[in-house]
């Protein structure tokens, strides 16, 4: 997913009008001043996730982020585009077990990525992406009893937010009432899931409830990020492994289930002021999410009128964000962040220069693999059981 030629020269983001600091000396990647050509003593800025794009601006997070490293652009470029895979459905005898953490080092990441479990899980994500290709959110889709039940569960979780109002506190971020919401989730998760599980899979709750519970943020840190989002995808994958979610459900899983999940998470973020569990958007797509950009870009592949650069058209965002996840994400980012878009979301700004949505989608899939599923700070919290096996 490379930018068009006219955007391939590195540029410096415009200075925000609200900044009062004096302009700094601008350096090139070679360590020379762009003004006079002389050597500088400052370190060159790190490259963005795509080659020769603008580096992110100076950014002061609310707290020290868990990860704030430049993307490995070379790894993204060299990585093959992930392909869809049919989920391998389990058969009896079932051996459900309480899942545990296994990833502690880059070697563990490498071992996971070479396993059939990883390839099948990533192939499931690609299959979800392909299922929504060319479809608006409101388009008719197959709605199984499972999809309907999961949507109902997510609506219940949304209702809890109204029942547990945010506490009055001086701290801007991390409202402590989120812990009350999360504690209710802990108490009710198993019973909610048992409502739609077939009898033969009742015992699976020991394995699948932890994925579900970890899908909605961390109550100690009062934060949320792409690792929690990945847990939700893993929970859906476990249901597919058991054959409870079938291939004909995939369109509904994205257009109904994941859209409702996104609605829930945005409300949690806004009401309880969840902190981003990671990069605060400087090195990522936005502060919290990744998958809706993948699914949303797939929706727009081969669209007659909307191109990646259309995200800069406010009329398009206002009129079509309810139908297309990518536009919805951009509209939400612009709503909650102030200042120039190119400053607070430099990577999204760069992606808008890509010529078509197919390249955006394939690039985001590669980036998800490298920047989320290959990152120890994120995947060290991922858990493994019988459905998602850890290969020794």
From TrEMBL:
The keyword Plastid does not apply. Coiled coil: none annotated. Residues 16-30 have a biased composition (Low complexity). It is found in: Cytoplasm. Residues 1-31 are annotated as: Disordered. Residues 1-11 have a biased composition (Polar residues). InterPro entries: Phstyr_phstse_ac, PTPA_C_lid, PTPA_sf. GO terms for molecular function: peptidyl-prolyl cis-trans isomerase activity. It comes from the Eukaryota. Its EC number is 5.2.1.8. PROSITE patterns: PROKAR_LIPOPROTEIN. It catalyses: [protein]-peptidylproline (omega=180) = [protein]-peptidylproline (omega=0). GO terms for cellular component: cytoplasm. Keywords: Cytoplasm, Isomerase, Rotamase. PPIases accelerate the folding of proteins. It catalyzes the cis-trans isomerization of proline imidic peptide bonds in oligopeptides. PANTHER family: SERINE/THREONINE-PROTEIN PHOSPHATASE 2A REGULATORY SUBUNIT B, SERINE_THREONINE-PROTEIN PHOSPHATASE 2A ACTIVATOR. Belongs to the PTPA-type PPIase family. This is Serine/threonine-protein phosphatase 2A activator. It comes from Cardamine amara subsp. amara.
């Amino acid at each position: 997913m490379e930018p068009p030629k006219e955007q391939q020269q590195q540029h410096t983001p415009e200075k925000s009008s609200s900044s009062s600091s004096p302009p700094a000396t601008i350096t090139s990647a070679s360590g020379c001043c762009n003004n006079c050509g002389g050597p500088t003593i400052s370190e060159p800025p790190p490259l963005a996730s795509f080659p020769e794009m603008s580096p992110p601006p100076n950014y002061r997070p609310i707290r020290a982020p868990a990860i704030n490293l430049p993307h490995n652009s070379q790894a993204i470029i060299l990585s093959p585009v992930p392909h869809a895979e049919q989920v391998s459905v389990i058969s009896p005898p079932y051996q459900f077990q309480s899942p545990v953490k296994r990833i502690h080092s880059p070697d563990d990441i490498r071992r996971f990525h070479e396993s059939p479990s990883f390839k099948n899980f990533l192939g499931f994500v690609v299959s979800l992406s392909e299922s929504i290709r060319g479809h608006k959110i409101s388009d008719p889709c197959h709605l199984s009893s499972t999809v309907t039940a999961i949507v109902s569960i997510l609506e219940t979780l949304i209702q809890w937010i109204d029942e547990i109002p945010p506490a009055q506190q001086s701290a801007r971020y991390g409202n402590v009432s989120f812990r009350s919401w999360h504690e209710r989730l802990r108490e009710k998760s198993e019973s909610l899931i048992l409502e739609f599980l077939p009898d033969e899979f009742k015992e699976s709750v020991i394995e699948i409830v932890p994925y579900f519970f970890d899908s909605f943020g961390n109550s100690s840190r009062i934060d949320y990020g792409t690792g929690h989002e990945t847990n939700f995808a893993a929970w859906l994958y476990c249901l597919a492994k058991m054959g409870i979610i079938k291939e004909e459900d995939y369109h509904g899983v994205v257009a109904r289930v994941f859209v409702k999940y996104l609605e829930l998470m945005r409300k949690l973020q806004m009401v309880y002021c969840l902190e981003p569990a990671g990069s605060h958007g400087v090195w990522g797509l936005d502060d919290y999410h990744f998958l809706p950009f993948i699914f949303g870009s797939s929706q727009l592949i081969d669209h007659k009128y909307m191109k990646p650069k259309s995200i800069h058209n406010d009329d398009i965002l206002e009129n079509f964000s309810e139908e297309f996840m990518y536009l919805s994400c951009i509209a939400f980012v612009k709503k909650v962040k102030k200042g120039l878009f190119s400053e607070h979301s430099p990577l999204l700004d760069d992606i808008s220069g890509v010529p078509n949505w197919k390249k955006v989608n394939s690039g985001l899939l590669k980036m998800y693999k490298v920047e989320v599923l290959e990152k120890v700070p994120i995947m060290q919290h991922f858990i493994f059981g019988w459905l998602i096996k850890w290969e020794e």
